[in-house]
TrEMBL record:
Domain of life according to the entry: Eukaryota
Domain K Homology: 1-77
Record's keyword terms, sorted: RNA-binding
UniProt entry tagged with the keyword RNA-binding: yes
Biological source species: Rhizophagus irregularis
GO molecular function per UniProt: RNA binding
Stated name of the protein: K Homology domain-containing protein
Biased amino acid composition, Basic and acidic residues: 99-126
Keyword RNA-binding tagged: yes
Alphabetized SMART domains for the sequence: KH
Length: 126
């Protein structure tokens, strides 16, 4: 029996996003590779353990663990990119919101100036 392989989980990746709803991110990898995948969150650093599923005899143990490890690393890269893109979009939204506030301020300032002009003209006519 081969010892489990450990893969460190980067800090940017949340455990829930890694596992997916109902394990939808990890279960397909387990089924395709004939392994068991455990997310160890209480260890420092948090990591994933990949062990051989003894009930399945597909490929050699090394091949199954390597394939599962490769797929997990690819999954983490994808999640990492999604998180970085989400952070960029959040920063862009904040910038756009600030611009919107400035535009709103300028519009209200213009509106007040126009009202003052109208009042002055109206008072001059009287």
């Amino acid at each position: 029996m081969q010892s489990p392989t450990k893969i460190k989980i980067p800090k940017i990746i949340s455990f829930g996003r890694l596992i997916g709803p109902g394990g939808c991110n990890l279960k397909p990898i387990e089924e395709e590779t004939g392994t068991h995948i455990y997310v160890i969150t209480d260890a420092k650093p948090p990591h994933i353990e990949v062990k051989i599923n003894e009930k399945i005899t597909l490929l050699s143990c090394k091949d199954r663990i390597k394939e599962a490890s490769d797929k997990l690393k690819e999954l983490m890269k994808t999640i990492d990119l999604e998180m970085k893109n989400r952070q960029k979009n959040t920063v862009k939204k904040k910038v756009n919101n600030n611009n919107h506030k400035e535009n709103h301020y300028e519009k209200s300032k213009r509106w007040k100036e126009n009202n003052l002009k109208r009042e002055r003209i109206a008072s001059e006519r009287k």
